Amino acid sequence: GKANIIIFIIILIVLLFFVPVISSLLTDLIEVYKFRLAGMPDNFMAATLKDSGTYIKFFTRVTPPNILGWAAIGLYLIFSLTGRSKLRQGRIYARRYDYGSHGTSRFQNKREIKNNYFKTKLGWFLGSDKPGLDYHLGMDGMYHPLEGSLNMQTAIFGSPGSLKTTGFVLPNIFHIPFMYKDRNEKPDIIITDPKSELYSLSANYLIKNGYDVHVLDFINLKYGDSLNPIEFIKNDKELIEIAEGFISSSADAGGSSFKSDPFWEQSEGQLLGALIGYILQIYPAYQQTFSEVLKLLTSQNVRNIEKAEGLFEEFDIKGAAAQLWQNYLLAEDKVRANILIGLATKLKLFSIEGIKNITGSTTMDIQKLGAKKQKPIAIYIIMPDKDQTFSPVINSIITTILNQLYKSANNSGGTLANPVYLILEEMANIGKIPGIEVMLGTMRSRKIYPMLVWQSLAQMKNRYKDSWEDILSMCDSHLYLGINDDFTARYCSSSLGDTTIKVQATSKNSNSLLGEEMSSESQSYYRRSLLFADECRRLPSSNLILSQRSLFPLILYKVQYKYWQEDKKICNKANLNRLPVIKNTYNT
């Protein structure tokens, strides 16, 4: 700038004035006084300054002091005009997805976020584009549109402590009745509830909004309602699904010493299906329960091979049950014994009085789910979060409910009259739901909207070894609330895609006085993951990653429901022990 130029000129003038004088003094000292400074006259400096020959001699005579002076002025000019030569190598990269040579992934911009998530509040509540907000009903936030181009099938992944419950599940339970308050449709809600926390914090709100609330209590095995899955089996397909779901969930829960070999699971499933089919065709309705299946299994009619061979023929058992029984009889004696022991081990749950009570009868009409009725229904399936002991029974109940929803949809022209929201917390504790990957392909047309909540993708892969990718592909929205394992982190990073980055190496010559720089740059383009796996794992606890089909991903802020603060609380807590005790109906 001008200041640098002025300073440069001033310093140059000073140098041109004083350097010749100093050079002349040094020359005179060397030649005349021979460094005998004591004999130097008092007016020596003044005389030198007044002598015009001082400057002429400086530029015309070659002496050691003049050479040093020339060098000093020359170095100043060189350093000032060209700067100190220095090489600054900087590897700086910039995202260049628009160049796109190695990838075009990027995060959504503000305009896209506004268009995609702020046009309606009818849909899943996702969070906010602003930090530090607390949840309240109808708040301005980001919503996944119900009636948009993407389906409502959502896979949630959040390690413990990632605010799954207060930052996502509870806000959506509250939001479902709120978003339908001015619509003719009244959605039903089915919730799996580890620890009974969801029931405690939201049940009174649903009751206040006109819901008929039911509870299946697999923690206390005492309060609420009961549901007998066998009562709703109407065809061979449902028979096989109930049996397979129960057996696979028992294997996940560690109920069989043979669980590493699928042969035993398949064999036990066939025997269970045969016995359920038997009691459906022979027993009166009040005895068509899993408890009766256990009694039949341990009876001499099944254990004694001579009696077993003629059992189904004697009572003219037909359909899939008859074929499954014949498949069981084909096995050798030792194999049959192992199948019997394995199935008896799994069915031991139905020797527990509380399980007998919950599955011995039905006190809620699940045929009304999705149908037109006076009051919408909410079902809390309360289950332990520390073990999977009752996973097989819970699996059978959820499978029964799903099958009933499809039957109701088929009876009403292929679509439910009222939508049904499934909030399946801790999916790992439910076990493997038979055919879930197939159902996910058709749920949207039935108005069934599932939210599948897992602690990690590795957990899903463990439960659905052969179909976890199919399940993910059926969910248009994947949300990562918190990642604490490598497999989920790598998958998240991969699903976000790659972007193009520009890397430049810069060589610069800087002029500290004139303020000018001479530089040369080289640029290269490379591939980079939008987020590396380690960056996904380091996601702040206040954020979540949203990845959706056909849209660029984004990072948004969680919005927590702070029920412990009185001014944030939406409803008072509900207590399980105020529910009626389940009646003993299994031996009526």
Short description:
The chain is an alpha/beta fold.
Average of the residue pLDDT scores:
88
- Number of DSSP E strands: 14
Structural class: alpha/beta
Main sheet, how many strands, which sense, barrel? 9 strands, mixed
**Gap from first CA to last CA:** 100 Å
What does this structure look like?
The protein has 588 residues and is α/β, with parallel strands linked by helices. Helices cover 43% and strands 16% of the residues. It contains 22 helices and 14 strands. It has helices spanning 2-33, 44-50, 53-60, 64-82, 110-117, 164-179, 197-208, 236-252, 262-282, 290-297, 300-303, 305-314, 320-329, 333-347, 353-359, 391-411, 436-439, 443-446, 457-463, 468-474, 486-496, 533-537; strands spanning 92-95, 123-127, 142-145, 154-158, 188-194, 212-217, 377-383, 420-424, 448-454, 477-482, 498-510, 517-529, 543-548, 554-557. A nine-stranded mixed β-sheet has the order 6-7-5-8-9-4-10-13-14, sandwiched between helices. Strands 1-11-12 form a three-stranded antiparallel β-sheet. Strands 2-3 form a two-stranded antiparallel sheet. A hairpin with a 6-residue loop joins strand 11 and strand 12 (517-529). Helix 6 (164-179) runs parallel beside helix 7 (197-208) and helix 10 (290-297) runs antiparallel to helix 14 (333-347). The chain is elongated, with a radius of gyration of 40 Å. It starts with a helix and ends in a 31-residue tail after the last strand. The model is unreliable at 34-38, 84-91 and 255-259 (pLDDT under 50).
